[in-house]
Amino acid sequence: MDDEAFDEAAFDAWLAGDPGRRRAFETMWQRIMGSDMDAALRTYKRRGAARAWLAGGAAALVVLAGGYKIVPLVELNLASPQRYTVAEGRIREVVLADGTQLTLARDADVRVRYTDHARVVELTRGTIFADVTHDKARPFRVETGEAHVVVLGTSFEVLKRQEDVRVSVASGVVRFGEDGWFNKPISLTAQQAAVLDQRGLARTADVTGRVANWRREWVEYRGASLQQVVADLQSLSPLPIEIAESLGDKRVSGRIRLTDPIGQLQNLAITHGFQLRQTDQALVISRK
């Protein structure tokens, strides 16, 4: 097989030429890289002499499948992940092999896999801030199961909850999109943010100067709007925080612990005379 670069435009045109092609390709890919391949990869370490054959055969299947934006999946799946966790209400800083710095919070659980071609962080729950070392040859990817974020070198926050996945960018550019071959990601630059929830992928309000303020744990506010404080608490909240529009401009002063969102909101409710209630879907701030 030759080393000709994959022509994405031609592939997209081929898919568009017949409504059945997209469905057929997805079905074929699921069969090639589905449970059977996973089982084969799991037996890799127990079949020493067969390793080269398995890797080569899987790579051939990838090429036959069309090679659509594929990193060496076999190599990635065979890499032993490094797991990092942090307790609820605590913050943990981790330096990865390439110098990338991860800050974990809100009961975060991550698994890191590095290969010669890729850097992948699987975020199963919680919130992380990543300050990524630039490496043009190895894109850095965060996967949440529902979404993925791809960068070369930048700093950004990823929040994964049951209801949504949120991304905020401190510097550089990231691509944020829903998992799936044909879902188009959006590009976010410094101070921009987006959310993926049941309604889909959408930009949200800019986060100028506020990305991952929780890394300081305690923040002193002087006449800040309640809306701004809520935005800072949002990253480590177990549920999305909803605030009545009429309360957004209420002024707040004092020292607030961003790693304790519910406790701090309860204190603010007493101090500033609003109501806080918790539903299955959100923390709701409203007038009494």
Short description:
This protein folds into 3 domains: 8-78, no CATH class; 82-204, Jelly Rolls, CATH 2.60.120; 217-287, Phage tail protein beta-alpha-beta fold.
Any overview of this molecule?
By secondary structure, this protein is of the alpha+beta class. It has three domains: 8-78, no CATH class; 82-204, Sandwich (Jelly Rolls), CATH 2.60.120.1440; 217-287, Phage tail protein beta-alpha-beta fold (3-Layer(bab) Sandwich). It has helices spanning 8-16, 19-32, 35-42, 51-64, 73-78, 226-234, 261-272, and strands spanning 82-85, 92-95, 101-114, 119-131, 140-143, 147-151, 155-160, 165-171, 173-178, 186-189, 193-197, 200-204, 218-225, 241-243, 251-257, 274-278, 283-287. Strands 1, 2, 3, 4, 5, 6, 7, 8, 9, 10, 11 and 12 form a twelve-stranded mixed β-sheet that branches. It has a three-stranded mixed β-sheet with strand order 14-17-16, covered by helices on one side.
Kindly estimate the percentage of residues that lie in beta strands according to DSSP.
35-45%
- Return the CATH topology of the largest domain: Jelly Rolls
> Approximately how much helix is present in the residues?
25-40%
Structural category is: alpha+beta
Helix count from the secondary structure assignment: 7
> Can you tell me the residue ranges where pLDDT is under 50 for at least 5 consecutive residues?
61-71
In CATH, what is the class of the largest domain?
A: Mainly Beta
State the end-to-end CA separation: 70 Å
Indicate the overall shape.
globular
Give the second-level CATH assignment, the architecture of the largest domain: Sandwich
Number of domain units: 3
Major sheet: size, sense and barrel closure? 12 strands, mixed
Evaluate the radius of gyration.
Answer: 22 Å
β-strand number = 17
In N-to-C order, the SSE pattern is HHHHHEEEEEEEEEEEEEHEEHEE
Mean pLDDT: 84
